[in-house]
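Read as chain and fold; for instance:
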Amino acid sequence: HREGVQSIVGIDTIPEAATAAQRDRPGVYKNYHIADICNLHPTLAADLKHSQFNTLICVSAMALGHVSPDAFAHAFNLITNGGWIAFNILQKAYKSPDDWGLYNFFSKIIKYGNLEVRIEHIYRHRLLMNGNPIENVAVIGKKWKNIPDKILSTCQ
């Protein structure tokens, strides 16, 4: 609140995520919804659109099938134009073709001006049991326009 944040709303498909958020960060979230952002109940969809969010943060959820390009796009499209977008992702899924369609998706939304990347920072997420590193990329950017369905249909 001292930085000007008025409210934080969480959305996850896993009920345990809401329980953990409320346990570990009591009072931080105004609301925490257990829902599939691609198939929201009409009332919740209307409430979220009406909220006029100005920031999207997606942490440790992209790649490995956790958050699809479609789910990210639905969340992205809830953010007002000019809003901030911050996420992290496996470097290999962001920088080269991958099994989840993320490389193709992010390449297109950057190319077509939906997302203007301001910062990319590569960092070691952790080491595997064999000692090999898992490298992630933290990305911060600005949203300038919604992601149209036609981009999604070419990213799957």
In short: Helices lie at 15-24, 42-50, 69-76, 91-95, 102-111, 149-153. The chain has a mean pLDDT of 90. The chain has six helices and six strands. Strands lie at 9-12, 31-34, 53-62, 79-90, 115-127, 133-143.
